[in-house]
Write a structure and sequence with these properties.
about 270 residues, alpha/beta, 8-stranded parallel sheet, 8 helices, about 20% strand
């Protein structure tokens, strides 16, 4: 299955600041920049035939409802899967992960999710919205869309979300545990969801919810590079170009795209 980029420029489920809908073309521009090259750290040449494809961006009407947007995302990902593509989704806010996983789940008897984030995104509802970008993993787990959810980099947990994590059997590796050397053990083929605010703001300032004390870029790259189970899909979300500095976060996102494609090929 060929790794295939697909942009989902949706940020209407954001609770604090819009801007993530602008991210997909900025990530692509950084990926194609002449400042870098097409080689990954394990010396895979992504310019080779069949290394990856690009399905373009979904289009949403200005007044698109969240329900209609979720249906369109699920339909698009389903079509890519039917065509033998492995989706690498460029968000967009984190609400898009729920419909992506809805499309994936019927094709996988067992599924792990590796969620890298400063926040658990496990609210039952946030500001009256059960589809908020603060809620996708509550929807995923209550819908039994994953058999294992491992969250890495957490450092903005709340009491309610801790209760939700216990309720759903979530494995939480917060930043204190990361600093102590703990790393995830994935049991099944995995969907990888990376919120760029998992990174310390020093490495990725272009996010809406900056949370100090996060992962370094090298720690995040190593986490991805050391995945040993098949990656069935992935997303990179919550890049907000409005808050970026000299396209630094776009460059980080592009680097993650490259390394994710390489690991997708290696993992089968």
């Amino acid at each position: 299955m060929i790794p295939t980029l697909v942009g989902v420029p949706w940020d209407a489920s954001s609770s604090f600041e819009r801007g993530a809908a602008l991210a997909p073309p900025r990530i692509r521009a950084a990926l194609a920049s002449a400042a870098g090259n097409a080689w990954t750290e394990d010396l895979s040449d992504l310019s080779g035939t069949g290394m990856f494809d690009d399905a373009g961006d979904l289009a949403f009407a200005p007044d698109e409802s969240a329900e209609a947007a979720r249906a369109a995302i699920e339909e698009k990902i389903g079509a890519l899967l039917e065509a033998g593509r492995r989706p690498l989704v460029l968000g967009g806010d984190h609400a898009i992960t729920w419909p992506v996983v809805r499309a994936l789940r019927p094709r996988h008897r067992r599924l792990s999710i590796l969620h890298v984030d400063a926040h658990p995104d496990l609210y039952d509802e946030f500001e009256g919205d059960r589809g908020s970008h603060a809620c996708p993993f509550a929807r995923i787990m209550e819908g039994r869309l994953a058999d294992q959810l491992v969250q890495v980099g957490i450092r903005a947990m709340t009491g309610h979300q801790a209760e939700q994590a216990a309720r759903f059997g979530v494995e939480t590796i917060d930043m204190r545990a990361v600093a102590a050397g703990q790393r995830p053990t994935l049991q099944h083929p995995v969907y990888v969801s990376i919120d760029l605010d998992a990174l310390d703001p020093a490495f990725a300032p272009g996010v809406s919810h900056r949370e100090p004390g996060g992962l370094t870029t090298r720690e995040l790259l190593s986490l991805v590079q050391n995945i040993q189970v098949p990656i069935v899909g992935a997303d990179i979300v919550e890049y907000n170009p409005v808050r970026d500095a000299a396209d630094l976060t776009a460059s980080v996102a592009a680097k993650l795209v490259k390394e994710m494609i390489s690991v997708m090929h290696r993992s089968g």
